[in-house]
UniProtKB/TrEMBL annotation:
<feature type="domain" description="G-protein coupled receptors family 1 profile">
    <location>
        <begin position="39"/>
        <end position="182"/>
    </location>
</feature>
<keyword id="KW-0807">Transducer</keyword>
<feature type="transmembrane region" description="Helical">
    <location>
        <begin position="59"/>
        <end position="81"/>
    </location>
</feature>
<keyword id="KW-1133">Transmembrane helix</keyword>
<keyword id="KW-0472">Membrane</keyword>
<keyword id="KW-0675">Receptor</keyword>
<dbReference type="InterPro" id="IPR017452">
    <property type="entry name" value="GPCR_Rhodpsn_7TM"/>
</dbReference>
<feature type="transmembrane region" description="Helical">
    <location>
        <begin position="30"/>
        <end position="47"/>
    </location>
</feature>
<dbReference type="GO" id="GO:0016020">
    <property type="term" value="C:membrane"/>
</dbReference>
<dbReference type="Pfam" id="PF00001">
    <property type="entry name" value="7tm_1"/>
</dbReference>
<keyword id="KW-0297">G-protein coupled receptor</keyword>
<dbReference type="GO" id="GO:0004930">
    <property type="term" value="F:G protein-coupled receptor activity"/>
</dbReference>
<protein>
    <submittedName>
        <fullName>Olfactory receptor 10G4-like</fullName>
    </submittedName>
</protein>
<keyword id="KW-0812">Transmembrane</keyword>
<dbReference type="InterPro" id="IPR000276">
    <property type="entry name" value="GPCR_Rhodpsn"/>
</dbReference>
Amino acid sequence: MTNMSIVTTFFLMGRPDASALDISLLGIFLVIYVLTVVGNLLILLVIKVDAHLHTPMYYFLTNLSFINMWFSTITVPKMLMTLASPGGRAISFPSCVAQLYSFHFLGSTECFLYTVMSYDCYLAISHPLRYATMMGVRTCALLAISTWLSGSLHSAVQTTLTFRLPYCGPSQIQHYFCMIEC
């Protein structure tokens, strides 16, 4: 019989040597977060409103802006809660799994999207006369959908394999959000 305790709640401690800076860091990261979200929303709005920007490059840029907006939203609010109050440090095990899955999903989708965007640029430069027929609306949609599905599959596999391992470490983690540590 083995003695294993199951961790149901983690405590995100952040940096123990920087507790005096918590309020300053809270203000700085809140401003950066708001600017990030507003900037990405403005990019989405401008691309939606201006008909001249309805091209494959801006279609992929829309996806990238959407990913970046949510990528920040996965980690920063919990980090702000951790900085704001000691009660905001706790995160449940299922919430940690969801945060890790979302973080890896958006991160890997962003990487796949960069690959697709580089392919789009390659086609535009190498085949300028045939570019419009090679990179049509259907092709753009299929490439974008494939990046989202690939990111979802990659993240599901990685998160599933990670959380199937037994966790026997401390419930206090020296980070501001859930992440895999080597």
